[in-house]
Amino acid sequence: MKNIKLIEVASEIGAGTRGASLGIEAIKIAALDFMSNFFIHFPSEKIPTENKLLFEPIESPYAKRIKGVVTMYERVSKAVSESLKNNFFPVVLSGDHSISGATIAGIKLAKPKSKLGVIWIDAHADLHTPFTTPSGNMHGMPLSISINEDNEEYGVHDPDDDTKKTWHYLKHIGKIAPKVLPEDVVFISLRDYEKEEKQLIEKFGMKVITTNEVRRKGTENIVRSVIRYLSDCTDIYVSFDVDSLDSSISKGTGTPVSNGLREREAEDLISKFMQMRKICCFEISEVNPTLDKENLMAEIAFNILQRSVNILMMN
Description:
With 315 residues, the chain is α/β, with parallel strands linked by helices. The protein has one domain (3-314): Arginase, Chain A, CATH 3.40.800. The chain has helices spanning 23-33, 38-41, 66-85, 100-110, 142-146, 161-171, 195-204, 211-217, 219-229, 263-273, 296-314; strands spanning 3-9, 44-46, 88-94, 116-121, 185-188, 207-209, 235-241, 279-285. Strands 2-1-3-8-7-4-5-6 form an eight-stranded parallel sheet, with helices on both faces. The chain is globular. The termini are close together.
């Protein structure tokens, strides 16, 4: 049986749309509505945020609030790493998806020798850099941070020296870079990305599983093939951005995209992954209740969270 620890990171400085910092509370409200005492069961740690930066002028247009992101990476990587060292299974609830780069850093701090695989369930590739970003929002960058990639070859911006220096520091947090090899990343339900990201996916031959493929082959077969694909990894991290769900249900997130997973498909996929011994950390991200009616997105996220944790407890 695994000892679960919840790590709550209500940070939204990496997003472009406001409101993701309220996602964790919305998930807790969903738990109350379902009369579940889930949140009383497990030890949890709340990480202080830098959301005050949202009220200050932006210094780095191509890596917005990057200094705050660095602070969050230091805090979150330390919390994740200490949880793992103390034999807890960290379940990270984060506001915006930029935090997943910090979670990955934390896993590597705890297990520097591990070959880490990443299952990225997301509509987006999150492979932008300050050189290629269309928006400057850092929730589009955590994977390029983790694979230590600038993608200058396809760059369209020339960020100032301060931004470049901070970006370099971010990629090298924990003095390990890259933290993940690009070929050890699997995208599921990826369907909305820019040509600069596509070049990286093609350059490294990163594995992409589309929504249609999930539907055609069934979740059981997808999970089997992913685990086979990542068979030489010693540890695997699962990151679930709720915008991987179809936009008909994922209204309560900043960047909804059509042709996504159905609730049941996401739940089946994630709970099957959680049965695998190598899974060492799970993260749910980007629930934004300010964009939602009836707290639907948070309820779906809570169902997936509860089912996943139940399976972890049984394993």
